[in-house]
Specification:
16 helices, 67% helix
């Protein structure tokens, strides 16, 4: 029997280090331009330390002595994290923050490759992971968003879910949800656990999260400013979520007749879509829980991948760097759902499709821009549908 040749570990580490070198060479000398989100975080932390309102962009711009492009959008308690960086000069903090993100990204890759994918990857995984879904990892590093910190704790929590350790799983999900709230959704993985105390862990975790937010709402006047900054959602390139896509599609249809759609139309249609997603997802996860054809740990892997896709479809704000959550479920589908030829074409499409900065062809501009804007979420919908189909048919492999 011929043993399958394994790729040496040094190739993995070499490719990651090579990636780091490329990113650093691109970002490190342009600290005046890149990590624009971090610039907001840095001066928000500094404003908070000085007793100024960190949610006012005028205050941040005065401290920076230049125009800050984006508002601070996270809860007031997260300012204490950013205040650490504000202890240093901006350039020093810039490099500290970038270095921390690169370390966490290396840890995320380790979790992806060695634990969730069980080292069952080929060398194509690395360029795929860097370039798929609009090069979302590059986008995160260039923008300086908090997403890699958030996803590190989320992927780390999945290790404890795989190992049936609900306390640490819940704790890490709560940490991951502390900035943007939406990762709290992953606590629902416990509904498909067979631990007798799963409902206690689930209820306790949601209670701790809700209680913490209520305490800050009633005790910190800045919390209202935080809510105000998150009142409106972007559409199109800035937020290619399923909600945004639904609104854009309905508006495009109505525009053919020179009308604006009533607000309730888009929301009602989106609610129906979400109801269908939740119903089919619940059915698939229940089938997966009851199947006896694969080991418990492999069932949990399928649950994690499925939940990542469900999450991507449900969240109202799903900007470019958020697409990191789709990388491993897409690759997992190539291994377990698609044929080799189908996997090749999906990988080619995901690597090749990058959001263009140009107008569409005449008479087809609306459709062209719609597809290019929302191609990542459209692919996520297709992947989600394939997952539900394979699971409900019980056609799943370890």
């Amino acid at each position: 029997m011929v043993k399958k040749k394994k790729h040496p570990q040094w190739i993995f580490f070499f490719l990651i280090l090579l990636f780091y070198a490329g990113v650093l060479s691109y970002i490190i000398y342009r600290n005046d331009f890149y990590q624009w989100d971090f610039k907001t975080y840095y001066y928000a932390g500094k404003a908070h330390a000085l007793g100024l309102n960190p949610y006012g962009i005028t205050n941040l711009s005065k401290l920076a002595k230049q125009q800050i492009r984006f508002y601070f959008r996270y809860p007031p308690y997260t300012l204490w994290f950013f205040r650490f960086f504000s202890l240093f000069k901006y350039k020093t903090a810039y490099y500290l923050y970038l270095f921390a993100k690169l370390i966490l990204l290396a840890a995320i890759y380790y979790i992806w490759v060695r634990i969730l994918l069980k080292s069952n990857v080929n060398l194509w995984f690395y360029p795929f992971s860097l370039l798929a879904f609009n090069s979302c990892i590059f986008v995160d590093l260039m923008s300086g968003n908090i997403a890699i910190f958030e996803y590190f704790f989320l992927w780390l929590s999945f290790i404890f879910f795989l190992n049936r350790r609900p306390f640490w799983f819940c704790l890490l999900v709560l940490v991951a949800a502390s900035f943007k709230f939406t990762p709290i959704f992953f606590l629902l993985l416990l509904l498909f656990d067979d631990k007798p105390r799963k409902y206690i862990y689930l209820a306790s975790s949601f209670s701790v999260f809700a209680t913490g937010q209520l305490i800050y709402y009633f005790t910190d006047p800045l919390y209202e400013d935080f809510l105000l900054r998150n009142r409106n959602l972007e559409k199109g390139w800035a937020n290619p979520s399923l909600l945004s896509m639904t609104k854009s599609f309905i508006e495009g249809l109505f525009s053919l007749f020179k009308h604006q759609p009533p607000f309730f139309v888009s929301i009602s249609i989106f609610a129906l879509i979400i109801a269908a997603i939740l119903y089919l997802s619940w059915k698939a996860c229940a089938v997966l829980k009851s199947t006896g054809t694969i080991a418990d740990e492999d069932k949990r892997r399928w649950l994690i991948m499925n939940f990542c896709l469900i999450y991507a479809l449900l969240v109202p704000r799903f900007v470019a760097y958020s697409h990191i959550i789709l990388i491993v479920p897409a690759y997992f589908a190539m291994q377990h759902i698609l044929s080799k030829s189908e996997a090749f074409w999906l990988m080619l499409v995901l690597i090749s499709l990058q959001t263009p900065d140009r107008a569409g062809p005449p008479r087809l501009e609306i459709a062209y821009n719609f597809i290019w804007t929302y191609h990542s979420i459209l692919i996520a919908v297709v992947l989600w549908a394939l997952y539900q189909y394979k699971i409900i048919k019980r056609d799943i492999t370890p």
